[in-house]
Design a protein that fits this description.
The chain has 227 residues and is an alpha+beta fold. The chain has one domain. It is built from three helices and twelve strands, in the order E-E-E-E-E-E-E-E-E-H-E-E-H-H-E. The strands form two sheets. It has an eight-stranded antiparallel β-barrel. Strands 1-2 form a two-stranded antiparallel ribbon.
């Protein structure tokens, strides 16, 4: 079972596995993160090792997610980073994601993650890398695509809500278009697949994320440190 980065059908909130099925993400695609990395605050409740068993394409997979702070000099302190490992116990296969970067946002009563896509023009396999001091400032103008989804931490339980399918995203895009027209928000002419940041924030403030994301969350449990 091959996990092909951004061509596989799974996008996981707050766990930094950014995967797609064809070109249809299971997070909401927008042109800016919901929180500006320069002013965002990290959510320390997400830090640590999380694990669980998820059914992915009819296979029961053991999922491990590792989330922590981004501690690179001269990069925004509000950035967070994560990586994930997926184990197929029947086929003894192990797949690991590259490190991903994100910010978190609180809108109304819900919490959201904005994952950063790879820089414009980076080419296949050349993932975003912010490991060098000051690397965010050098690349921020190339970061034009972000993936938003919803999460909730309750002590040692992490719930993650994904977008059901592209049809649902299209319905939301239509609702956002109507909202944009009624509130005179600027249209995003450059990328048809992107929802403008302003319209998404207005939508979430007005409606919450219940219609946007699946009703049943995917759940992980906190795994205690080995020492």
């Amino acid at each position: 079972m091959a996990y092909q980065g951004q061509k596989r059908a799974l996008f996981v909130l707050c766990l930094a596995l950014i995967c797609f099925c064809g070109c249809n993400p299971t997070g909401v695609v927008t042109d800016r993160p919901l929180s500006d990395p320069l002013t965002a605050e990290a959510d320390e409740s997400l830090y640590g090792h999380w694990g669980g068993v998820w059914t992915i394409e009819n296979d029961a997979m053991e999922v491990h997610a590792f989330i922590g702070p981004h501690v690179v000099k001269d990069n925004p302190e509000g950035l967070m980073e994560a990586a994930m490992t997926i184990i197929d116990p029947l086929k003894h296969g192990i797949e690991s994601s590259h490190k991903a970067y994100f910010t978190v946002s609180k809108i109304g009563k819900s919490s959201y993650v904005s994952f950063f896509d790879d820089p414009v023009g980076s080419g296949p396999g050349n993932h975003l890398n912010l490991s060098q001091p000051g690397s965010y400032a050098k690349q921020k103008d190339l970061l034009t695509r972000f993936f938003v989804t919803k999460y909730h931490v309750d002590n040692d339980t992490l719930d993650i809500w994904l977008v059901k399918n592209q049809e649902e995203v299209s319905q939301i895009e239509k609702a956002l278009e109507e909202l944009k027209e009624s509130s005179q928000l600027k249209a995003n002419e450059e990328a048809k697949s992107l929802i403008t940041y302003d319209s998404l924030v207005v939508y979430l403030r007005k409606n919450g994320g219940d219609k946007l994301f699946t009703a049943k969350p995917m759940t992980l449990k906190r795994i205690p440190p080995l020492r």
